[in-house]
Amino acid sequence: MNNIGRNYFDIGYMDTLAQGDSWLHQLDPRAKVITTLLFIMAVVSFGKYTIWAFIPFFLYPVFLIAAGGLPGGYLFKKVLLVSPFAILLGIFNPLLDREIFLLIGTIGISGGWVSFGSILLRFVLTVTGALLLVALTGFNPVCEALRKLGVPKPFVIQLMFFYRYLFVLTDEAQRMERARALRSFHSGFMKYRTFVSVLGHLLLRTLDRAERIYYAMCCRGFDGQIHRLTSMKSSLRDFSFVIIWLGLFSVFRIYNVPEELGGWVMRCFR
What we know:
Helix 1 (3-17) runs antiparallel to helix 8 (153-183), helix 2 runs parallel beside helix 10 (236-254) and helix 8 (153-183) packs across helix 9. Helices cover 71% and strands 3% of the residues. It is built from 11 helices and 2 strands; from the N terminus they run αααααββαααααα. The chain starts with a helix and ends with a helix. The chain has a two-stranded antiparallel sheet. By secondary structure, it is mostly helical. The chain is globular.
């Protein structure tokens, strides 16, 4: 199977992970959405030169992966797949900020490199948190939880359609790649002009199919409301999950835990 076919099944694999039976999967989606938002807000609220204070926040994704029985290697690959965006965002920091920020022995580290490392750590934490939310909940329940929490309904519907549109786009791309391979004896080389033409036809075919899908939904009574078979019900376990992690995030944000722990160890050995 070609790469497009593999990516097609890879997109749906996140929904497969959300069908797990761990206690994290069974939590109210609203509790997981709120906790993830609190986690992301705490991470991005640090200063641009923060490095060591991010270490305790890795407890959250590690706990979710372990307790939810999720494949850590798969999620790590997903983070690496989009990491070039974070690298591109901060790669010029060392050139713009050359003032020495700290010394490691006789080696001086500029503030640009420190801020670049801070951007990468924020990126890893926030993207991992978002991926874990989808892997433990599913995209549609996440959207429904956002609607229940007061996010405007048109935005939620567009978000859900965008996610489904990815499946339509990938399916059409797989068909066109298969047809091209059969007509070119599986040649992997594609000229630039051919690629541009294929890309344009792919967009047109995808829009046409998406429009047909929308008309079919309207014929079946779609009124802009996504109905779920199960209702969302909050329990004491959901509130406890949010409160406990809120407390931990607050401690991690207020206190530099690695620095405090290092100072305590140094005082013990004096």
